[in-house]
Each structure stands twice: as structure tokens, then as C-alpha cells.
Amino acid sequence: MTRACYLALRRVKALQVAADGVIIVDEPGRALDAKDVSGVLDLPVVGVVEADPQVSRAVDSGTLLRRIPSSLARGLRHAG
Hints:
There is one protein chain. The protein contains four helices and three strands, in the order βαβαβαα. It is of the alpha/beta class. It has one domain (2-78). Helix 2 (34-41) links the parallel strand 2 (22-26) and strand 3.
């Protein structure tokens, strides 16, 4: 999972992780889109998860795995 952000994509490329696809965190105002991410990483985009402050709060509080926020669950469900 990565953000559609130049710095995030540079980091993913540097890690050289073997993957079959990528899930994008969709944030308002980003210049890059799924096609850009797919082209840079040479991977298909298999899902898009909307950025949601509720997810950030769940991560910060350590409750993400116990109660997945609906926006995250919805995005992951479409990823297969």
C-alpha cells in the first residue's frame, strides 16, 4: 500500500519489494493518479483506499486491527 506521492513512490522503488499489485491511498489534491503509480512501479493498481482521518486515529490509538474503519474496509474489499 502506498500514497500517490513522488516521495512515497521513490521509497517503494528503493525497497525493491516483490509484489503482484499495489493498493493506493487516495488523498485529495494529489497530482499523481493510479495510472501514474502503476507506470512508475510497473505493477497493476489492485485497489484504492480513500484517505480518512478515522483510519489515522485508529492507527494512532492501536485499535485498527480490532475495529477496521468502514472506509478502509470498503477499499480493501474491492482489492480482492
